Amino acid sequence: MYDMRKVEELIARWENGERDAEMRKVRNEVFDVLTLRTIYKLMEQKYILRLEGVISTGKEANVFRAVDPSGEYIAVKVYRVETSEFRHMWKYLEGDPRFARFRRNKRSVIRVWAKKEYKNLEACFRAGASVPYPIVSRDNVLVMEFVGEDGEPAPRLKDCVPDDPDGFVEELLDSLGKIYYGAGIVHADLSEYNILVRGGSPVVIDMGQGVPWEHPFAIDFFRRDMERLSAVLSDLGREYTVGELVKVLEERGKKGGGKA
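The structure corresponding to this sequence follows.
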């Protein structure tokens, strides 16, 4: 657990060059001294009271369960600076008019990526889609709504079967219509790994690579998403072709007051 006092201590030890077992563990949990300073600043600004355990690990980021000053659970996503394969992020950033300028060094790319996920979540949430509510983005850290119940993170669709598959599918299609045609964001990595099941309902996550329709590769990303979505829905007992999915999502996006 990392509270403000502990983070301050770790920053001091890092700057003093200490490299014991505890500091190696800190490194393994995606922290460097600049990230620790960012966490400390977010604690000063009353976004975070303390960080608890890791609830998700990936090549690009670790997600921590945390608590805010009011005692509510939140999620803190820390993007890896030293180990992220940041070059593959360029194709999602280049061509996105919202991020026309960014430096090509690793930390700058990761910082923009975190801001990009925040902006994508914000747009989708405003469109009424079921996504985590974004709270704040600073450097390589994103603070957002905790998706789960009583401190337990919601499972991925990959790891569970909804109690009511038909109802789940209907909610998922409604939400995706709002994402693609309400917010105008192509997810670009949609799969059963990026859909959580909370209380029997879907929550779409991992929006960092999402692009607007103006992006030069948006159609390619969209086609790939629809192919994967067709397979996901087939596993839930619902058969759709890619063409049928495009029509369904567009209709639901329009019904929800979207852009299409």
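The chain has a mean pLDDT of 92.
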